[in-house]
Amino acid sequence: MPRIAVICGTGMSAFASTLASEDSSRSNSMIAESQWGDVPLNVVNHDSGVVFVIDRHHSTGGARTPPHAIEHRANVHAAASCEPDLVVSVNSVGSMLESMPPGTVGVAEGVLDLSIKPWTFHDDDAIHADRTLPFDPRASSVCEKVLAEKQGPNPSRVVVAQCVGPQFESPSEIDALEKLGAHVVGMTLGPEQRLVSEAGIAHISLLCSSNWAAGRTPGEPEAQIDHGEVDEMASEMRDLVASCILSLLEDIT
């Protein structure tokens, strides 16, 4: 039976419930243990397969772990321990593309991660994972087809710039990242993609455009970014993301 691990965050705290609301779905929870910490998972059993949902911002208290403090090794290890056919990162991003306004879901083709902190499972021996093709073309195309049917034309060949956070980027940083080839910006995909590449599992990223990047709001370049509004916008895309996940289960079948 097909198995997909989903790592999600902003606006997606109720994503497992969205999946479980589908006909014939059943859900339960479990804990994945690792040397980097324990990770709670929601397991959604569907007629077409099993989806393991990980909230990348989980914490033991009431607060949510900020992006710069996430232990990505624990999250990806938990995803890999589910022995999935595919890992799906769901990432909230700020858009520089007119064709990807807030409320639009896109599919990543590339990642631009120039952040300083290294992420690896291999600190004691040099293991060099290939990242020439970071995202699975077939799975990406399945999602692109679903999105085209449900929201119309999709932005293509989207490159995601990795920034550290927790602050949003400045307009000058956005200008520089665009010159380097980025189309959207986020705070979590870079480490996840690096670690999934080491795990050797097929990987895709669904990009939820939750806000215009700093300085890019049409007609209002000084518009400020409010995280509460970003979270609310991202939550409105849960159904689109769920449709992609269910189509991926059927394609793997």
How does this model look, in words?
It is a single chain. By secondary structure, the chain is of the alpha/beta class. Helix content is 30%, strand content 26%. The chain has a five-stranded mixed beta barrel with strand order 5-8-7-6-9, surrounded by five helices. Helix 3 (137-151) links the parallel strand 6 (105-113) and strand 7 (158-162). The chain is globular, with a radius of gyration of 17 Å. The chain starts with a strand and ends with a helix.
| CATH domain class | Alpha Beta
Oligomer: single chain
Q: What is the string of SSEs from the N terminus onward? A: EHEEEHEEHEHEHEHH
Structural class: alpha/beta
Strand order of the largest sheet: 5-8-7-6-9
Rg, rounded, reads 17 Å
How many domain units?
1
- Classify the beta-strand content into a percent band: 25-35%
General shape: globular
In short, what is this structure?
Strand 7, helix 4 and strand 8 form a beta-alpha-beta unit.
Protein traits:
7 helices; Rossmann fold; 5-stranded mixed barrel; globular
Topology, element by element:
Layout: E1 3-8, H1 15-20, E2 26-32, E3 39-46, E4 49-55, H2 72-81, E5 86-95, E6 105-113, H3 137-151, E7 158-162, H4 171-179, E8 184-186, H5 189-199, E9 203-212, H6 227-235, H7 238-252
Parallel strand pairs: 1-4, 1-5, 5-9, 6-7, 7-8
Antiparallel strand pairs: 2-3, 3-4, 5-8, 6-9
Helix pairs in contact: 2-5, 3-7
